[in-house]
Amino acid sequence: MPTGLLGRVVLCLMNQTHSKLTSWGLEYVLVARDAMVLDIGCGGGRTVQRLADMADQGKVFGIDYAETSVAAARPLNPTGIASGQVAIQQATVSQLPSANNTFHLVTAIETHYYWPNHLHDLGEIYRVLRPGGSLLLIAEAFRGQRFDALNGLVMKFLGAGYLTAAEHSKLLEDAGYLGVQVVVDRKRGWLCVSGKKTPEA
């Protein structure tokens, strides 16, 4: 993530360009008003703001590995932070700063490409989900879609993971998630993958 003025510009653009994608993906998960939610890779903080509006009686945490992102996300959520409904901090998906069984929902929008170890990191998310809780991955780049040639080159240049829809599904299943669902909007090149933590017996 760029720093300084360039970093702030990139985050502003991300907030704008990811808005429709985020709205589409959030249609495939229930966000209860009293939910505890974690947004991984919160970027400029727009998704945290949106989730806080939806879970207005719950609490929303945003994390990002980039200091620039945390610095941009906090000013976008001043009311929620002041009231204690929102918390944003610098952290990595590989070592989440949360106790076991904390969240009803974990979201990751346009970020899982860059995770160091998909299987390990999905396991870390599984740890912090409550029994029966949901994970939602939303992306606009996946192998086998209409923009494959261009996206493939970009993702290779960035050193990012570039998986097919089926590979996303298998990855969640291998990490222990149940009821894995994959939704693809091929016209827009969007992907939404969800799965649940095993409910308590």
Write the layout of secondary structure elements.
Elements: H1 4-17, H2 19-26, E1 36-40, H3 46-54, E2 59-64, H4 67-76, H5 78-83, E3 86-90, E4 103-109, H6 118-128, E5 129-139, H7 148-158, H8 165-174, E6 178-185, E7 190-196
Parallel strand pairs: 1-2, 1-4, 2-3, 4-5
Antiparallel strand pairs: 5-7, 6-7
Q: How many helical stretches?
A: 8
| Radius of gyration based on Cα positions | 16 Å
- The parts where pLDDT drops under 50 for at least 5 residues are 1-15
CATH topology: Rossmann fold
Give the strand tally: 7
Task: Provide the structure class.
Answer: alpha/beta
- The residue-averaged pLDDT reads 89
What fraction, in percent, of the residue positions are helical?
Answer: 25-40%
The ordered H/E elements are HHEHEHHEEHEHHEE
CATH superfamily: Vaccinia Virus protein VP39
Q: How many angstroms separate the termini?
A: 42 Å
Count of discrete structural domains: 1
Largest pleated sheet:
7 strands, mixed
Q: What's the architecture, going by CATH? A: 3-Layer(aba) Sandwich
Strand percentage lies at 15-25%
Record the strand order, biggest sheet: 3-2-1-4-5-7-6
